[in-house]
Amino acid sequence: MMMRAYAEDYLSDVVETQGKLFDFVAQEFPDKDTEEFIKTYMKSNTRKSIDEAQAYVNTMDCKELWEYFLKTEQYTLKNGEGLKGFMPDWIGEFYAYYQWYYNIPSAEVVQKVPIDFLKKAYYGLHDLELDLAVKKVGEE
After folding, report:
1. How many contiguous H segments (helices) and E segments (strands) does the chain have?
2. 56-84 confidence digits (pLDDT tens)
3. Tens digits of per-residue pLDDT, 102-115?
4. What SS3 state is found at 124?
5. Which of 27, 77, 88, 96 could pair covalently with 15 via S-S, beta carbons 3.0-4.6 A apart?
6. Whole-angstrom Cα distance, residue 19 to residue 97?
7. Euclidean distance between CA atoms 40 and 48, whole angstroms
8. HSE value, Cβ hemisphere, 13 Å, CA-based, for 67
9. Taking 90 as the threshold, does the pLDDT of residue 95 lie above it?
10. In this predicted model, what pLDDT tens digit does every residue of 5-20 receive, in sequence order?
């Protein structure tokens, strides 16, 4: 049995919250670069805390996590284009599950599975159950 990143009890919350977070940024700030935010977030200390299952961060809702991220990382959104539709939510969920399933640092997930790849693969993968999509990508 493979070691997972943290207790499965947290998994659905982390997956859902990260999806909502990416979606929130894309919806609320359509003139800002969602992809740049996602890359920064995935490599951040905030996300590292989630990898390490720090309960305080793992149990935050989307808005709390956003505020915490801005404060902790001293982050400002960059101008650019927001991702549209359901894609940011799905990418957030995909990355969260992928990180947990393969137990690799979130910072490495965006290198292993670049956003550009997910944008192209989205139409073929987003209808699958999340665990199947993650296993399918992981095999490549």
Report:
1. 9, 0
2. 998 899 999 999 999 999 999 999 999 99
3. 999 999 999 999 99
4. helix
5. 96
6. 10
7. 12
8. 5
9. yes
10. 888 888 999 999 999 9
The pairs formed by 108-115 with CB atoms below 8 angstroms and a separation of 24 or more are 109/42, 110/38, 110/39, 110/42, 110/43, 113/137, 115/35, 115/38, 115/39, 115/91
Report which secondary-structure segment, H or E, holds 96. helix 87-102
The one-letter code for the residue type at 45 is: N
Which of 57, 82, 92, 62 shows the shortest CA–CA distance to 72?
57
Token pair recorded at residue 132: 């199947």
Six token digits for residue 140: 């490549």
Q: What length does the chain have? A: 140
Tokens of 128: 């699958």
Helix (H/G/I), strand (E/B), else coil: 139:
coil
Residue type, 7: A
Q: What tokens does 72 get?
A: 């902790």
- Interhelix angle 130-138/115-125, rounded to 10 degrees, is 130
Over 70: is that where the pLDDT of 139 sits? no
User: How many CA atoms does the CB half-sphere of 24 hold within 13 Å?
Assistant: 13
